Amino acid sequence: MSKKISLTRYLVEQxxxxxxxxxxLRLLLEVVARACKNISxxxxxxxxxxxxxxxxxxxxxxxxxxxxxxxxxxxxIEANEWGGHLAAMASEEMDAxxxxxxxxxxxxxxxxFDPLDGSSNIDVNVSIGTIFSVLKMPEDDRGVDExxxxxxxxxxxxxxYCVYGPQTTLVLTVGDGVAMFxxxxxQGSFVLTQENIRIPEDTQEFAINMSNMxxxxxxxxxxxxxxxxxxxxxxxxxxxxxWIASMVADVHRILTRGGVFMYPWDAREPNKPGKxxxxxxxxxxxxxxxxxxxxxxxxxxxxLDIQPSSLHERVSVILGxxxxxxxxxxxxxxx
Length: 335
Ligand code: AHM
Ligand code: MG
Prior knowledge:
Strand content: 15-25%
Number of domains: 2
Bound molecules: 2,5-anhydro-1,6-di-O-phosphono-D-mannitol, magnesium ion
Mean pLDDT: 95
Largest sheet: 8 strands, mixed
Number of strands: 17
Order of helices and strands: HHEEHEEEEHEEEEEHEHEEHEEEH
Oligomer: single chain
CATH architecture of the largest domain: 2-Layer Sandwich
CATH class of the largest domain: Alpha Beta
CATH topology of the largest domain: Fructose-1,6-Bisphosphatase, Chain A, domain 1
Distance between the termini: 56 Å
Structural class: alpha+beta
CATH superfamily of the largest domain: Fructose-1,6-Bisphosphatase, subunit A, domain 1
Number of helices: 8
Shape: globular
Radius of gyration: 19 Å
């Protein structure tokens, strides 16, 4: 039987052999993985753990928080605040950044996360997940503030997600391809189950919330109309559709077998560029997708090149198999 490679060993080798990650970043990623393991346990308990249902509070985006949104947020903060590897954290569930308290040593990294993505699926036992992104503090910076987080996604030093589905799977990039780790519940550790993941450049599967069709912009409508026209239409082939309504699960499928995912701007809230958040949803997913040979744009620009102007900024998202993303993006140009 071939030897199992744990996440710890994988990270040590990334640090030691390949020199990809400094020890502080390795420690940070181990702590994030440990927090995901704890969140996975809470998710698995479900009604037995009293974790389902709403918390009767709202986050900064004006969304009703679920109990698990808050639990997952607390688990990530508590796991990460004392290790000395972070300067501050930011989360979908917190209005302002969380600066590491003075009683703990401070490190040079910034951690951003959506603690529990796919909140609408929590109570119905459908896959949900945690998304995270790691940035470095700008050099020569004495104090930490929100401005330090406002870096384009191409400056991420690590990104990933953990999907809580039939299996708990952690997917990670430190800029050297994408690796997947499956949680071995008996051993309590993440085990490497796939490396060098590649997304096929072509696909016949798209993911979009079709109920918003009447609110879309013309380029998005054209792209989807052409897919729906199937073999008789301009694309000359049939397309399949999937929409899980958990970005982690939709992206996980795309990393596994290809596809295109879209959450475009729509006319329901015309002043917002989209539903998904740039810094802790779109950026980490865009980097993972690019590292696996796919592409990610907002229709007009590479997501990783967008200069954020606020922590909770939203963005229109097209990501997945390269040729489909390029096509959908080309329908948007010129302005
Ligand atoms: P959340 O972070 O509050 O869970 O919202 C993000 C989720 C994504 O995971 C998913 O792609 C999208 O919202 C689903 O939206 P909709 O319910 O409009 O289909
Ligand atoms: Mg989310």
